[in-house]
Amino acid sequence: MAQLEKLLEPGYIKNLKIKNRVSMAPMEKQYGDRVGNITQRYIDYMVERAKNGVGMITVESTFIDPVGRGNIYQIGLWDDSNIPSHKRMTDELHKYGTIAATELHHAGRNASTYKTGFQPVAPSPVPCEVSGGYMPRELTVDEIKELIKKYAEAARRAEEAGYDMITLHGAHGYMLNSFLSPYSNKRTDEYGGSTENRWRFGIEVFQAVRAAVGDDYPVGYRITADEFVDGGLTLDDTKVFAKKLEELGLDYIDVSVGIYESAHMIIQPMDIPLGCLLPYSAGMKEVLDIPVIGTGRINDMVFAEKALERNEADFVHMVRAFHADPEILIKAQKGDMDDICMCMACNKCIDLMFSDQQVCCTVNPAATREREMALRPAKEKKKIMVIGGGLAGMEVARVAALRGHDVTLFEKDNELGGSVRWASKGKYREEWWQTARYRIHAVNTSGVKVSVGKEVTLDDVKTAGPDVVVVATGTVPFVPPYIPGVNKPVVTDYVAVLLGERAVGKKAVVIGGKDIGLATAEFLSENGCKAIIVEDSDALGGDLGGIKQMVVLPRVEEDTNIDVKLNSNVEEIGDDWVEIQSKGEREKIEGIDMVVFAAGREMVRQLDDDINREGIVPEVYIIGDAAWPREPIDVIYEAAVTGRRI
Fold first, then answer.
1. What tens digit of pLDDT does each residue of 527-576 get?
2. CB-side exposure of 604: number of CA atoms within 13 Å?
3. Which of 308, 379, 543, 579 is most deeply buried (CB count within 10 A of its CB)?
4. For residue 485, what are the CA distances in angstroms to 276, 507, 565, 587?
């Protein structure tokens, strides 16, 4: 059993007792309706987390004005008609002793006209290129006064809706943050210019909200401690402002960092270390007496416990950790660490949100689908052969076994893991292994029989006589056989390189500049090899999400061991050279000892063809990358659905 003494002790915010120090942080999910009401699907998601022990849940950014909504299906408290749906949710959360908090939000300069139907409004006409570059209209003083009233009205609605506390969203470049920051506030009146004037809007919003809900109701402030942009706020600036709010009666501070222009620090990918924002909450604790909530890619309860022991925070925010496994706290209390489906910070959830899609999870296909993904016993027990021990094969096998089927999982390699075995190689990619690690454990504890080290043939299937075959044989690297010189000894592929099957040379040409190619080039660089990326498009990382690009592309650009050739392709390969062309011009790259194909994958589906041609099995499914090469979120979901369908 894990020692989580500090994490599990009760805490207080004002007069409100919270049963432990674990807080589920806000994350927009796009499961409201078009006017901000909360749907049953949203409630199901929240209840699944509440019933598994989390002390406090802050639902998500909740818009106070349609002009300032951040996403199309964001929840809101801009109108009294929003109250009943929010009340239904808070009533459900309270059944489990969970404190419900809302986060009042106006997107300000981050708003997008195509989402709101309005021109954004902000303290100054400083557009946010990350959210579309819409030019905001500068608010008049009268409009500022009206906006303050809207915060207060939303606070009144939050209290009526049963929320136990309110956080004012003053982070991430949104309205409150943009008034505070010299980066985005260029006003010369009483709401801009001097430090005190830039404080004014935030102070007046807090005071109006306090007046609306009374002195006994907890009100906090989410703050961007450092904006990570030239001319922006730093920790020294925000500590002084937070202290002023405390003097005025603020009850807690929720510490984040970043604005949209530095979004990789708001929602950190796996490239950034666990606990990366704890120094900022620790900095706030140096000057504040009120409770401080800390965060920063925390996906491990033991890690959270250590943060509290070091006095870096009074409460610990996690959200993607609960998105990936709603039972993470319960499992950690029991010491079942191997059974935790850990968030690996792939950021697919955030990529979906920023592309106006509903948020799901790569590693947990049941996240936001709690009702439809509930496991139910199979009506008829079947003998199932699952062929392929990658993510799709392991997921379908564990789900089918949990439903009562007789499942055997076959993998031709000597270990399970599939493509994650190579995808997790390299300095910044190790956490990809978490999704395989969990499924290997789940397969081994769910009653699945496992056979490794032998490739299944059609005769094996005939001999076994299964009721169902699931083909999940994945892909292999595609090495075009028609490129002149492709059979030269220098030629290899990304899997052979990343798995160490091919020794790293001194100078390599990497064909492909998307995610696989970048991973390969960085791996080669880390191992002392000069890498020249040849990419046929006009940009690197075209299949990476926007936040991932903010981290990976500058890193590659700064790597002196990596060169890039865009709008280029390989025409011919020699013994120690490659000829490429770009816009009709030819160039010969000489002195190479490796040519690594990292530009595509080929489906492995011969066995599926053979089984279907022979017609020897009554029920056959082909899933995962063997059906079509896709992202892990797609193949795991497909496998989860198939496992429930059989």
1. 999 999 999 999 999 999 999 999 999 999 999 999 999 999 999 999 99
2. 15
3. 308
4. 47, 18, 20, 16
Please check whether residue 20 is in contact with residue 342, taking contact to mean a CB–CB distance below 8 angstroms: no
502: containing domain: 491-601
Helix (H, G, I), strand (E, B) or coil at 552: helix
Is residue 637 included in any domain, yes or no? Answer: yes
187-214 in b/e form (b: 16+ CB < 10 A) is beeebbeeeebbbbbbbbbbebbbebbe
Q: Which amino acid is at 43?
A: I
| Nearest CA-CA partner of 181 in 220, 144, 228 | 228
* Nearest one of 357, 366, 356, 355 to 323, comparing CA atoms: 366
First to last CA, the chain: 36
Nearest to 595 by CA among 575, 615, 625, 609: 575
Residues 596 and 618 in one domain: no
pTM equals 0.96
Does a structural domain hold residue 367?
no
Q: How far apart are CA 153 and CA 404, in angstroms?
A: 53
Whole-angstrom distance, CA of residue 349 vs CA of residue 7: 26
Dist. CA 386–CA 622, nearest whole Å? 10
User: In this structure, are 229 and 305 located in the same domain?
Assistant: yes
Q: At what angle do helices 141-160 and 195-213 cross, to 10 degrees?
A: 30
Query: Do 412 and 322 share a structural domain?
Result: no
Do 573 and 503 share a structural domain?
yes
> Do 410 and 337 belong together in one domain?
no
| Residue 435 CB burial class (10 angstroms; 0-12, 13-18, ≥19) | buried
